[in-house]
Design brief:
By secondary structure, this protein is an all-alpha fold. The chain contains five helices and no strands.
C-alpha cells in the first residue's frame, strides 16, 4: 500500500511539473514602428496635450523625448497608467499604433541645455 501511495505521489508530481508552463517572456524590443506615423497618432490621440508636440513635456505630463525608455516599460505604462494619464487599452490604441508612437518618442531629440536669450 505504501508503495502504491508513493508511486501515485511521484506520478502526481511528475504530471504537475510537466504541466506547469512558464509564461511567455515580455517582448523586449518594440514592434516595428514608424516615427512619421507615430507623429500623426501622437496628435490624433491627444498625447501632445500633456506631453507637448515634441514629447518635451508639459504642464500635465513628463518629458518622454530622449529618455531611452524600454519598450516593455513604455507599453505597460500606457496600458495601465499609475496616475492621471488616461488608460489606453488595445482596443482604444492598437499595439501597432503604440509602436508608431514609441518610434516617434524615441526619435525626438533631447531638449537644449540652455535657451539663448532673444536678441533685440
Amino acid at each position: 500500500m505504501k508503495t502504491m501511495m508513493a508511486a501515485a505521489a511521484v506520478l502526481f508530481l511528475v504530471t504537475a511539473v510537466a504541466g506547469a508552463q512558464t509564461p511567455a517572456p515580455a517582448q523586449q524590443t518594440a514592434p516595428a514602428g514608424n516615427a512619421d506615423s507615430g507623429a500623426k497618432v501622437w496628435k490624433s490621440v491627444g498625447c501632445w496635450q500633456c506631453h507637448g508636440y515634441e514629447a518635451q513635456g508639459g504642464a500635465a505630463g513628463p518629458r518622454l523625448a530622449a529618455r531611452n525608455l524600454p519598450w516593455t516599460g513604455f507599453s505597460a505604462y500606457v496600458r495601465r497608467p499609475a496616475n492621471q494619464m488616461p488608460l489606453y487599452t488595445e482596443k482604444a490604441l492598437p499595439t501597432a499604433d503604440l509602436a508608431h508612437i514609441y518610434a516617434y518618442v524615441q526619435s525626438r531629440p533631447a531638449p537644449p541645455q540652455n535657451i539663448p536669450l532673444l536678441l533685440k
